[in-house]
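Risk register update: the risk that structure generation would not scale has been downgraded. Supporting records follow, first protein first.
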Amino acid sequence: MPARAAYSMIVSSPTAGLVGGEGTSTWNLSPPECGRYDLETRTTLRLDYQLQVEFRSERLVSSEQEASGTWSFRTSSQDFGQEGDVAEGSASRSPDGIRVRLDAPETEEIELASTISPVGLRSLLVDRAIAGERFVETEVYDARIQAEERLAAAALILPWDGSRRHAEDDPAVPMPRPGLKGLRRWVVYQDLFEEHADGDGRPISTSSFVLYENGVADDISIVLPEGIVHGRLTRLDLPEAPRCGRDRPPAGSRN
């Protein structure tokens, strides 16, 4: 389902060195035409340390074509206002899995075994949650984290029991989003690992969130080395999707 979501981010569990922080995050998914899915995500954080302030930002822009099973992407990051890592390229189905062509940081072609896209991972979690499954393992290609290889994703899906509040249940938060009312929801704990992880096997990305059956997330917690960043849904628009017959998952979701 198309969605434009905005989140307010705060540092909820600072460490001894990190004393606070805040930021914003957006998730914009739209199908501008039948069989095409455009995604843009952006996160900007200000981290307040005892002796300094750091600014970080991350952006992903991707477009998936369902019929051809291809998607293009561009990711970028900034620290202290300086351009950081950039990954740009495209991915497509091949007989043995996925063929990735990187145009940046350098030109390179990579063959990966069967994997899914970030949008496909969200779609898969919803499908498995509705089916009553509690544990999901899959491979995902997420150039924001690792441009040269796929990642292993592991997620635990638990029934929502009311212990995690979110915007719909908080009377202090305005309710401009009736599209969430009455929808089924779950609590998801998700880890991403390097495909060939060794050593202690610690995840390179850890998060948790409340997941609605239409794919919208709320009450997001992201574990950073310095502390935990917590995000709350502050704005949600659910525009009408093109009338394309039966809804189907994005191209990257079933490779």
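Supporting record for the second protein:
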Amino acid sequence: MTDRQFYVLLGPDGAGKSSVMARLSAALPGWRTLSTDDELVAGKHGLITRLRRSVVEDVLPELGRAYSVDFLAHLLGTAVVHLRDQLERQDPRTPVLMDSYYYKILAKCRLAGLTTHPLYGWWRSFPQPRAVIYLDVSPETAWRRSGGGTRLNPLEHFGPRPEWFGFESYQKNLRKLMLEETGRLPVTVIEESAGTDTTVAAVRKALAA
């Protein structure tokens, strides 16, 4: 655990993390939000956005044929390293709210079939936050938000196509692994709510506490 004021906003796919991060970026003066979301990535780090797009458009459709899971892990790991690098560039006195990818990438690589890998030990050695704020959401709600699976990518469901049972199983396993990876840290669970305003207010309250 780090001495700096560093927290991670975690949650399954479809939890609304991106919307909450965007709102908090404007609502928390004096804080720094670190994310791989396109709207929060600085222009000089445009490579992160391009790599993310390439994973979805080029690598995932050919995973197991043109590209191995090892290759996928190394490519996804660039996001984790980028977040760590950004954290270490901050003034230690500046409080930081970190994107869920800090833990989510490791969990997704494990779900992709890479149960063990030398990279995992390295990632787990990165600075750990004071606490994790977990945005909980049911698979049913996340499925609805995905347009019934129409907006999913292959790293958000099991099986060759986005179908309900493959999505539900994936999300339950993703939740289990993310909470396993953060098990030694204080975790505040924000229960599913009707709107972004309520969730943002709950996260701000958790950070203040």
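The radius of gyration is 16 Å. On this basis the risk owner (M.S.) recommends closing the item.
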